[in-house]
Amino acid sequence: MGREANIQRTTKETDIAVTLNLDGTGKGDISTGIGFFDHMLEGFTRHGFFDTKILVKGDLIVDGHHTVEDTGIVIGQAIKEAIGDKAGIKRYGSFILPMDDALCLCAVDLCGRPYFHFECDFPVERVGELDTELVREFFYAVSYSAGMNLHIKMFHGENAHHMIEAMFKAFAKALDEATSFDERITGVLSTKGSLG
Known about the structure:
Layout: E1 4-10, E2 14-21, E3 28-31, H1 35-48, E4 51-58, H2 65-83, E5 92-99, E6 102-109, E7 115-119, E8 126-127, E9 130-131, H3 133-146, E10 149-156, H4 160-179
Parallel strand pairs: 3-4, 7-10
Antiparallel strand pairs: 1-2, 2-4, 5-6, 6-10, 8-9
């Protein structure tokens, strides 16, 4: 049995259920009501080799903000729960991912202390039904609810679809590395003796 989490979060704005298996094969069942967001979460699932079920009902009649941000909160909570005590994991992960014209760096530290840095200027305000400004909100929510240090930097890019897709895939690869085990690690990888 893999490292799994099942999180349910219901507010007046959203109803979200997330199942996450960190030791999966990349299978996803994803429905957020925002097609392009689904596509990005499918990329995260596939390229991180996670198994996910992400079902979201949000107040899209308002806009996509609550749906995207709250999904980030719940995915972050699921990551935190699935990782468990962090014994034996590498803790750090990073990846530089090319996606046609886009080149993105993502670096992760599962230290238990949230921090988020984001460098990207999108050339358009929307891709499909997703406001591009919500990409930052999503990753901010993930980092703070998971308690991870997360840096995302877009070196260059012209097409916003490619840029956002590069981010989600780079995050998946970095998180996969950070959550993987190293047999040389005894307990947690910290001079303090704990990650939290």
